[in-house]
Amino acid sequence: MGKGMIASLKEEIPTDKKIMITFCGGSVKKNGVYEQVKEALAGHQTIEFWGIEPNPAIETLRQAIELGKKENVDFLLAVGGGSVIDGTKLIAAGLKYEGDAWDLVLQGASYDCVPLGTVLTLPATGSEMNNGAVISRKETKEKYAFYSNYPVFSILDPEVTFSLPAHQVACGLADTFVHVMEQYLTKCGQSRIMDRWAEGILQTLIEIAPKIKENQMDYDLMADFMMSATMGLNGFIAMGVEQDWATHMIGHELTALHGITHGETLAMVLPGTMDVLREQKGDKIIQFGTRVMGINSGIRDARITEIIRKTEDFFRSLGLRTRLSEAGVTMETIDEIERRFNERNVHFGEDGLVDGATARKILLRVFE
Ligand code: NZQ
Ligand code: ZN
Cα(265)–Cα(200) distance, rounded to whole angstroms? Predict the structure, then answer.
């Protein structure tokens, strides 16, 4: 992590490798990242694949896999945000697979992969240091998690984040915040150290968010943001504690059905999850309120309500919508999400309480 780090790509990848470099759209050409990557890899054999869109689609990734097979690619370099990195994780597995890569997504995991390195341009997903990916299928409006190998290296240069649109910064902050909450807001007393690490990241985000809004070109602030995002979902705060992930599973449906940016779906859903599961999560919500939000008094129920309100206020302070109706989500969408969850017979959350009916309650709570 640090200034001018992209040049180190030269040493990271052996020169006998045939590299496919993957990108999203034009931002890397405008902010100089593309040039830095090309310069660093001038002595390597490279081909490029452009167009891995936000919420990477199998339809696009199939084309990359076809190209990679034809060109005998044996190393992948993802240059972009979570979508490029996630998409490239599937390409890495797809290059070693004979059939259609969507089979691998439905299977949920594949660890026979071509090695992958990354140059991260958007702090949010933690994909640069985890083995997860989320792949969409446009045709059927589906979006599922998929697991493969970890990147062999990732380059995090905070300077590349200076060009991010304000909405992406807001979504990245919200995504990071909710990643930590998914691993923290379960039960008390499972691990002091995990709790303190998680609370440390949450406090950092609350502290830096308004400052970043004022000046996104501040290297140290963006370095803290980048590190928070990576630490938020690289497994460090998950050791020995239960995890939730229901908010994410509902959020993925909102993206699949309405195209709402991932981080913003979470800002909408999390307050609903906290409210509907206030009995089960109450003790941890109080701990979060006391240690992170500084809400120390009041009778239990009123205090929980205040903590949930403050959490929603935080998302709104980022400039995000927190109500479904603001984003044009309709009752039909809520029906459809309930139907899909019932059809798949899911039971999300640390206690398996989030099925179709509970997801419906959560969504209704944040409708307007
Ligand atoms: O197309 P360009 O112009 O390159 O614009 C990109 C992209 O459209 C732009 N961008 C990225 N870096 C930039 C920049 N613009 C200016 N300057 C820069 N430095 O940002 C747009 C969005 O990028 P995207 O990669 O989609 O964002 P993000 O990193 O938030 O990734 C979202 C995807 O990751 C998945 C989400 O579901 C979603 O599909 N997730 C992946 C996870 C994982 N792998 O562990 C966990 C997460 O919970 C999440 O689900
Ligand atoms: Zn996320």
Answer: 24
Q: Is 18 helix (H, G, I), strand (E, B) or coil?
A: strand
Report the candidate in 236, 33, 222, 266 with the shortest Cα–Cα distance to residue 134. Answer: 266
Q: Which domain holds residue 352?
A: 165-365
Q: Tell me, yes or no, whether 46 and 17 share the same domain.
A: yes
Do 77 and 205 share a structural domain?
no
- Ligand 1 centroid to 159 CA: how many Å? 17
How many whole angstroms separate alpha carbon 92 and alpha carbon 87?
9
The span from the CA of 89 to the CA of 151, in Å, is 8
Do 240 and 305 fall within a single domain? yes
Residues 6+ apart with CB under 8 A from 283: 187, 188
pTM: 0.97
> Mind listing the pLDDT tens digit for each residue in 104-124?
999 999 999 999 999 999 999
Residues 170, 86 within the same domain: no
Residues with CB under 6 A from ligand 1: 24-28, 31, 54-55, 80-84, 86, 121-122, 124-127, 130, 132-134, 160-161, 163-165, 168, 171-172, 175, 233, 248, 262
Domain ends where: 136, 160, 184? 160
Q: What tens digit of pLDDT does each residue of 191-226 get?
A: 999 999 999 999 999 999 999 999 999 999 999 999
Nearest Cα neighbor of 55 from 104, 127, 154 is 127
Among all ligands shown, which has an atom nearest to the Cα of 123? 1
* For the CA of 83, the nearest atom of ligand 1: 25
Ligand 1: which residue has its CA nearest to atom 49? Answer: 125
* DSSP for residue 164: -
The CATH number given to whatever domain includes residue 115 is: 3.40.50.1970
pLDDT for the residue numbered 4: 77
Phi, psi of 155 (to 5 degrees): -105, 125
Give the closest residue (by CA) to ligand 1 atom 8. Answer: 54
Question: Does 329 share its domain with 277?
Answer: yes
11 and 34 inside one domain = yes
Return the amino acid letter for 19.
Answer: I
